[in-house]
Amino acid sequence: MQMEMKPWVQQCTELTKPERVYWCDGSEGEYNQLINTMLKDGTLLQLNATTYPNCYLHRSNPNDVARAEQLTFVCTSSKDDAGRNNNWMAPDDAKEKMKELFRDCMRGRTMFVIPYVMGPAGSPYSKVGVEITDSAYVAASMHIMTRVGSVALDQYQRDGEFVPGLHSLGDLSPERRLIVHVPEEKLIWSFGSGYGGNALLGKKCFALRIASHMARREGWLAEHMLILGLENPSGNVTYMAVAFPSASGKTNLAMMVSSLSNEGYKIWTVGDDIAWLNIDAEGQLRAINPEAGFFGVAPGTSHETNPVAMHTMEKNSIFTNVALTPANEPWWEGFGTPPPAGLLDWQGTRWNNDGKTAAHPNSRFTSPARQCPIISPHWEDPQGVPISAIVFGSRRSDTIPLVSQSFDWNHGVFLGASMGAETTAAATGTVGIVRRDPMAMLPFCGYNMGDYFGYWLSFGKRLKKPPLIFRVNWFRKDRNGKFLWPGYGENIRVLKWILDRVRGRGNAVKTTIGYIPTTDSIDTSGMNLASSALLEVLSYDRSGWKKEVDEIVKFFSQFDTRLPVALQEEVASLKSQL
Ligand code: SAT
Ligand code: MN
C-alpha cells in the first residue's frame, strides 16, 4: 500500500519532535543558506575562494567515515527473502527499534524535508523519493547528488508514488547506529550516521537496495555500475555499463582521459556509480544514471590519474575528511604534489607524517555531474543510453586476467556472480582480503542473491540482442608485487578490444574461463609495456583457477536451493574442465 507524502511527514514530525520543519525547494538560494548555516556552526569550512570557489570542507565524526555494513538491515517478511547476503530483522521488530531511536531525536533541531528524483526529469524510468533529515550537510549533499524540489513534487503528482526515507544523525554513537530497509513497503530508516552511503538515502539505500527489489517486481535492474560512452574514430559512441566494488576506480574509469585520443578514441561520462537498466519497446537495454552528482573517493585522484575529476571538483563542491593546506586548499595522498608544510590532517590536527595518512582513505568529494568536462551530451536523456556491453571488474592481484569475454549470457551471469574482490576502505572492516562480491552488489542487493542470480539469468532472455559480457581486472601483480598493467588512461586499450568484440571483430582464444584476447589484438601502440608483462596479464593461471573454483563452490553453497540450476551447471562445467 502506498503511503501519502504529507501524512507521512506529519507522522515523522510527531515522532521526532523537531523545532522547525523546512521543505526544501532545491533552489540555489536554499543551497547557499544551508552552506551559510554550516559555516556559522562549524560543520563546514570555506576553502580558498580563488582556487576552489564555492567549495567547502566537512570533517566528520572520526567514528563515522564509511558505510556500516554490519549495522545495515534488509527487513523482508520472510528471512529467506533477504538472504545470507543481508542482515535481517522482522519488519515489525525493526520498526519498533527505529521508533525508539527516532523518538524525540530532533528536539531543538531543524527537520529538512527533501523531495527528490532519482533519474532525469521526465524520464519514464525515474523515481521519486523523500528524505527527511536533521542534517544540513545531508540536505546540501542531496542538492548535489539528486534533483530536488518541484521536479519531484510534480512527478509525485503524476505517479502517486515515492520512497520515504527518514534519517537522523542522532548522537552519532556507533552503538545507536542502524540503517534499516523494508523493501516490501519501500521504507528506509537510517539513524546515527552522517556518512554518504549511510545518510544520503537516495544513493545506496534507495537507488540500489530498495530499487533492486522494486526492479525485480517491475522487470528492470538497479546495478552498482558506472555508465560510459566510448567514441570511435568515426564518431560513433558505444555505451557500456561497468560494475566494480566501492573504491575500485569506477569514477576514474567513467572519466578516463583516453591514451588513444590521437587515434580518435575518447570517453564520455554518463554516470560513475549506479545504473538503472530497462528494456525498451524494441527489446534494447537502456541505462540511466539515477544520480545528479559524484561522490568520489579523493585519495589517488590527481591531475595525472584523473584530470577530469580534478576539474569537476574545482568549484561548487563539498570535500569530506580530506587534509587541508595552509593555503586553504584540499590535499590527499596521491594528490600529485608533496604534502606542504603546515598541513592539517582530516581531523584538523597538524599532520606530522607519523605513518598515519593526512586524508582519510575514504575521504570524498561531492560535485555536480554537469561540471564534468566530458559529461555525455546524452547523460540526461529521458530514454537513457543503449547498452552494448556489460563489464564486471574487481581488484585482484592474481588469478583473474586483464580481460575475458563470456561465452554467452548465462556464462556472463556466472562471471558476475562469482566475482571476488579485495576489500577497500569504503566499508568499515579489514582492507585487502578477498571476499566474494557478486556483480559488486553484495552490500547493496535488497533481496536474496540466489534469487538475484535467477533474475539476471531470466533478464537476458527478454533482450532482443543481449549485450556481451566481460570480466576485467586492472590490478593483477607480478611475483614481486608490481602491477602488470599501468591502468588509468591505458584502460582504453581494453575498452577498445571490448568495442571490437561488440562489432564482431577483435581476436580471441577460447579458454576454459572464456575468450581471452590474443596479445596482438590489444592495441599497445605508443605504450611502454614489456611483451612478457602483456602475456602474463592476459594469461589464465590454471592452478590459481583450481583454487578459485573451490572458493566459488563454497560461496555458492550458501544459497542452497535458491542457487539457479544454470549457475550450478556453469560451476560444475568449469570445475570438470579444470
Ligand atoms: O559511501 S557510498 O556508499 O556512497 C560509496 C560506496 O561505498 O560505493
Ligand atoms: Mn558505489
Short description:
With 578 residues, the chain is of the alpha+beta class.
SSE map:
Layout: H1 5-16, E1 20-23, H2 28-41, E2 45-46, E3 56-58, E4 72-74, H3 79-82, H4 91-102, E5 110-118, E6 127-133, H5 136-145, E7 147-148, H6 150-159, E8 163-168, E9 178-182, E10 187-191, H7 196-199, H8 202-218, E11 221-223, E12 225-231, E13 237-243, H9 250-254, E14 266-271, E15 275-279, E16 285-288, E17 293-297, H10 307-312, E18 318-320, E19 323-324, E20 330-331, E21 364-368, E22 385-393, E23 403-405, H11 409-417, E24 420-422, E25 434-436, H12 449-461, E26 468-472, H13 492-502, E27 508-511, E28 514-517, H14 531-538, H15 542-557, H16 565-577
Parallel strand pairs: 1-5, 3-18, 4-9, 6-8, 8-10, 13-22, 22-26
Antiparallel strand pairs: 2-3, 5-6, 5-7, 9-10, 11-15, 12-13, 12-14, 15-16, 16-22, 17-21, 18-21, 19-20, 23-26, 24-25, 27-28
How would you describe what is shown here?
The chain is an alpha+beta fold. It has two domains: 5-43 and 65-218, Phosphoenolpyruvate Carboxykinase, domain 1 (3-Layer(aba) Sandwich); 223-292 and 377-577, Alpha-Beta Complex (Phosphoenolpyruvate Carboxykinase, domain 3). The chain is 28% helix and 22% strand. Helix 11 crosses helix 16. The mean pLDDT is 97. The chain binds sulfoacetic acid and manganese (II) ion. The site of sulfoacetic acid has 8 residues, from helix 7 and helix 8.
